[in-house]
Amino acid sequence: MGVDRFYEAQQEKVEAVIREKMIDELRSLGESGLQIPVGNIKQYLDNCIRHWQRKERSGDELARYYIDAYQSTRMTLFGELLSPKDK
Questions:
Q1: Are 85 and 31 spatial neighbours (Cβ–Cβ below 8 Å)?
Q2: Is residue 43 within 8 Å of residue 86, measured between CB atoms?
Q3: Is residue 34 exposed (0-12), middle (13-18) or buried (19+ Cβ within 10 Å)?
Q4: Which end of the chain is more exposed for a tag (fewer CB within 10 A), N or C?
Q5: Under 8 Å CB-to-CB from 48, ≥6 apart: which residues?
Q6: What is the DSSP-derived secondary structure letter of residue 62?
Q7: Distance CA 53, CA 81 (A)
Q8: For position 55, what pLDDT does the model report?
Q9: Among 32, 18, 34, which residue's Cα sits nearest to residue 70?
Q10: Cα 53–Cα 51–Cα 9 angle in degrees, nearest 5
């Protein structure tokens, strides 16, 4: 396995852990009977994506993992990514 493929595999693992943690948290909120408006979830994800994009611009090496995980969750829930014009 080359270095690039190793890096990609590690990135996929980190993104999966972050994504599963978010989904578990949302699921537990739903099971507790707490009703969260869909728009609030979308806004939360968008704010998280923007936050980590700022961190990435300032040199945070882990930021890309969080951006990808939040974007993936947004795609799963809403069928779309946060577009550059929405940033």
A1: no
A2: no
A3: exposed
A4: N
A5: 66, 70
A6: T
A7: 14
A8: 94
A9: 18
A10: 55
Domain interval for residue 8: 3-86
Query: The whole model's pTM is what?
Result: 0.66
Q: Residue written as tokens 């998280």?
A: 48
Q: Which amino acid appears at position 35 of this protein?
A: Q
- Structure tokens that stand for 20 in this block: 């599963």
How many domains does one find in the chain? Answer: 1
Tokens of 64: 């890309």
What does the alpha-carbon distance between residue 19 and residue 23 come to, in Å, rounded to a whole number?
6
